[in-house]
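Technical annex B. To support the medicinal chemistry partners, we prepared a structural model of the target in complex with adenosine-5'-diphosphate, based solely on the information shown next.
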Amino acid sequence: MSKTQAVFAVLALLGLAALPHIWSNPYYVHLMVVIGIYAILLLGLDFVVGYVGEVSLGHAALFGVGAYTAGVLKFQLDAPFLLALPAGIAVTAVFGLLLALPALRVSGPYLAMVTLAFGTIVQILINEMTFLTNGPMGIALQKPMLLGHRLSGVDYYYVVMVALVLTLLLTQRLVKSHLGRAFEALRDSPVASDCMAVSVYRYKVYAFVISAAMAGLAGSLFTYSEEYISPDTYNFQLTVLFLLALIMGGRKTRTGPILGAIIVVMLPNVLADIDLFRRLTLIIVGLAVAYAVYGIASRRHAAAQMAVPLLFTIGLAVFAYRVSDIADYRLTIFGLLILFVVYYLPDGIMGFVRGTVAQYRPQWIHRHEIIQAAGSAQHVWAAPDRLVTAGNLLEARNVTMQFGGLKALDNVELIVAKGSVHGLIGPNGSGKSTMMNVLTGIYRPTAGEIEFGNKRITGMSPSAIAGAGIARTFQNVQLFGEMTAIENVLVGLHHTYRSNFLHVAFNTKHYRDEERVARMRAASLLQFVGLGNLANEEARNLPYGKQRLLEIARALALNPSLLLLDEPAAGLTAPDIKELIGMIEKIRDHGIAIVLIEHHMDVVMGISDIVSVLDFGHKIAEGEPAAVQADEKVIAAYLGGKSEQVA
Ligand code: ADP
Ligand code: MG
């Protein structure tokens, strides 16, 4: 944490502590408590929505599970508050796990459906299990006792704020850790995550359980803040409200969930008070006009681009002054706001603020950060040298891969010797990439056996195969776009971490050491591929050629004994290709075997020990480069394909 950040943090804490004395009206104090509770839930929801990139419609139910755990414990057993909170967290985490294990086998709309069904079931169960939950009658209770003293509304505010601050701290640590990077990576590219030995399914479940635990904490706090719980609170509307709050506030930030919570809690109050609403619309119009004028004057935005949002905000203000009562329009206004956010602020309000700040930030700050990151790399990456003994590293025999009626691979044998460079060529559509996908477990071959290092890997999951030492790059670049270059490589280094959730939560020395070492390794890998000065650039902003190099660095981070490169020279400039050849040679010199798919014949023929040629899924030739180049079948295949030339 920098000095400025520390000062901000202290000021924010002081502000939080002072709030209930500034707005001492119990109604306001209660609103702030609800905001704090929602913020805790939203911080958790962001793991699923913002980081993993899935939509959960089950979070109101999880919130309800937490609330009812605390409520039932009090109602049935008169359990103390300090037991209710951890119990609420634990029980909800278990529910989250039970939901996640089957649900996360599917994703997208299917996951939304499964979580929605879960929500409905939970609500029905709470309603029907009267012996436990008191059914539709609900459970009434009082503010908790703590240290022999019944907490007042303000006391309880402090309890919730402590919980919120701890949740913030935990969230911040998690998202900055290897766990957070795993969550983020699997959203940006699930295939690449799996191929970096970060199991998509496992980390999705992990994120979901963390998210559920936070919903459980929020729920159990909610029980005591409301002093009454009943089943109909935890309904579909609440789930949607949570999602909207997060999307409006801005995903993948800490401030977004807080802002989102403030908005959804305050909005009904604002809409109930027409004068307040009118003044607020004026402020919004003022902000929008200022932004538009500045944006147009500095030529960052075209006038046309600004017109719709401006008209919208002005329209809202005009509307506010024309109607006398907006209570009836509540849902409409809410809906319009949502549309507005989705269209104009896809990254939410905080995402918009961040983006704007970053745009106007002087360039030198950015450069300074990059130099800092690169400076930590004292030496350029060197793989631990492998003693290359004779023999085969990979043996794929009789591999057939059938897609419907098409045999993309037909009874192909590919044998890669230890420490060799094995070229794999063939016209477009001949099955080269398919071979790579079969070798890395993305496709399960229709028939055939694959042995790697004398171990059968056919049928193993991509992440297990990656863990066994096969790394790869992709023909269609598969980077983690929203993550920086160095973070991409750090995902490849995920396997070097032994720290778990608790190490991260308590920021132990063990974990910090692992992180430090991993960052150094990542920085030197970036230097190795010539991206040392782009460490802090988001991967999606890199030029295409550099993205390919970054993929190589990330693959090497896996510390593989076999590296599969799928057209690494595509999109590279001539000098870059030269460097790439040097890199491949260096990698080979460290004893890492390479399978190289490449259309640039000079590259393949120059460095391959053996070249195999595929055509329509058949292996038509194999041997030393010179012999293959002279092979008539090969020449015919390429001329038939018309797209390539054997140089
Ligand atoms: P190459 O990498 O040699 O250009 P590919 O391995 O990508 O070729 O493709 C080989 C053939 O398999 C092509 O005809 C392609 O359309 C087909 N193919 C590849 N993947 C799939 C898939 N997932 N489903 C159906 N057909 C596929
Ligand atoms: Mg291909």
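Notes passed to the chemistry partners:
Residues 403, 406, 408, 426, 428-434 surround adenosine-5'-diphosphate (ligand 1) (CB under 6 Å).
The radius of gyration is 29 Å.
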